[in-house]
Each structure stands twice: as C-alpha cells, then as structure tokens.
Amino acid sequence: MSDAPVSAHPQVRAAELAAYLAARMCHDFISPASAIVSGLDLLDDPSAQDMREDAMSLISASARKLADLLAFTRVAFGASASAETFDVRELEKLAQGVFNHMRAELDWAVETPSVPKPAARTLLNLAQMAGAALPTGGTARVRAVQEGASIAIAVEATGPKPRLRPEVLTGLRGEPLTEGLHGHWAQAYYVHLFLADAGGRVFTDLTEEKVTFAATVPA
To answer: Is-contact 142 127, C-beta < 8 A?
Structure first.
C-alpha cells in the first residue's frame, strides 16, 4: 500500500500541469476524430463507393467514442458547469461510456446515491485508470460507501496480467515526473492534487493478480 501527503514533494507549476492535461485529452480525442475524417474521405472518394457501408460504420463508431470521451472528460477533468453534487447513476453512465471502448468490463457497485464533486472526479478517474491497467481484459470493480463524514472508495482491476505504469504511481504519490509518459502521470497527479485540496487521500496496492486503488474523500 502506497500513499504520500501533498506537502512531501515539490509542487509542479499549474501551467505545466495544465499543458500536460490538455495534451492528454487531445491524445484521447485525436484517434476517434481522425477516424471520422477518414470515414468522410472514403465517402467522398468515387473509387471507394463499395466501401460506403464500412465508412458509415467507422464514422458512427468513432463519433460515439468521441462523444463518450468528451462527456466523461467534462466531469472527470473539467468544472462540469457549476454542479457540486452528482447522481452516481449519471457517473456510472459516463464511466460505462468509456469502458464501451476498452477491453476491460466495468462492475459499478457504488452504494451512496449522490456524491460531491471531489468524490465524483475520484470515481471516474480511478475507474478509467483501472480499465487502463487491464490491457488484455478483466473487470474493474468500483465501490463506494459513506462512512460518517467520509466517502470510502475502492477500485479493483482484476484480470490476466494487470499492469500499472510507474508514472501513475509517481503521480498518485504527488511526485514530479522524472521519466515515463506525461499523459498517464498528469491524470494521476491531478487526482492527487484535487483529493489533497479536498482533504482526502489516495492509496494503491499491486499484486500479480490485481491492482487496487483506494481513496477517502470528505462527504
């Protein structure tokens, strides 16, 4: 089990973190956006009319993926208008939208009916990170219960050969990235920051069969 207080490490400049998060989101969006453009190019190509059905399928699937990612990102990373409390059924829809394009399956078992913004962001980000830890498939189980003045969150990624990138651990500990991919680190570091700002904490545990994220957030 690993965790660290936000004050234990030097802070990353806000502008630097914003740039890394923006790059991460652009990376997620560019693939389906490019696929839509490729499908439209096929429709416009007179010599590829026999591929019209394939082009329409590509456009439809890619547009759906892009819409799912945008809706998810708006809450997981953005301000999501002025909402401060979120219905967990809506959060489940957002998470499932992302998992529809992953190999892993989502098992959503959140008991509390609504959660404040820090807990909502925590649920979504940890769920996505759990899915990413299962590149060959498996199940990401998301659980949350209110215990007094806190919400306890546990997200377990179980499957064949689960993998957690070192830069994710670095980010969750609140440490600046020294090597690895900025996109994976930025998301984890962002989770660490907003949880610390809210008075919460995040922990990780790794075994050969499972990756576990746990967090506590004020209710």
So the answer is: yes
* Best CA proximity match to 118, nearest among 4, 203, 216: 216
* DSSP letter (8 states) at residue 211: E
pLDDT tens sequence across 13-52: 889 999 999 999 999 999 999 999 999 999 999 998 899 9
Give the predicted TM-score (pTM) of the model. Answer: 0.92
Q: Are 174 and 4 in contact (CB under 8 A)?
A: yes
How far does CA 186 lie from the centroid of its chain?
A: 11
Asked whether residue 74 is assigned to any structural domain, the reply reads no
155, part of any domain? yes
Number of structural domains (the chain) is 1
Q: What is the CATH number of the domain that holds 173?
A: 3.30.565.10
Is 35 within the bounds of a domain? no
| Residues facing residue 115 across a β-bridge | 86
> What is the layout of strands, in order, in the sheet containing 210-218?
105-110, 139-147, 150-158, 210-218, 201-206
169's enclosing H/E stretch is: helix 166-172
pLDDT surpasses 50 at 7: no
Q: pLDDT tens digit string along 53-97? A: 999 999 999 999 999 999 999 999 986 556 789 999 999 999 999
